[in-house]
Amino acid sequence: MGELEDAVMTRVWKWNRPVTVREVLEDLQQERSIAYTTVMTVLDNLHQKGWVRREAEGRAYRYEAVSTRAAYAAALMNDAWSQSDNPAAALVAFFGMMSDEQRLALQDAVRIVQGPSVENPESATRDGGR
User: pTM of the prediction?
Assistant: First the structure.
């Protein structure tokens, strides 16, 4: 996703509702000079790529995100990881770049995905069954 596509999608994800080209344009114009037709083209491109769905409303469209920003980030990470000729080394390098806060978030995510540990039933009880 390009920089302008990301700026548009950031708004669509943040607002979490169907948006018009005009709404996105007015918000973007607070940061930069941009034309209506440019925003319309970007939203059309995002629709063609499958990132937004649109529904006609009069002579215009309302656009809505197909998935969340988290799902987009996960798809990017998965794509990058799957292209590596050494996935384990790629993960080690990625984990090495993480901040302490990101590592804690990773540990929480792994716990959620794995569920209660069969090998350590005490942790399942201590964590409230998570």
Answer: 0.67
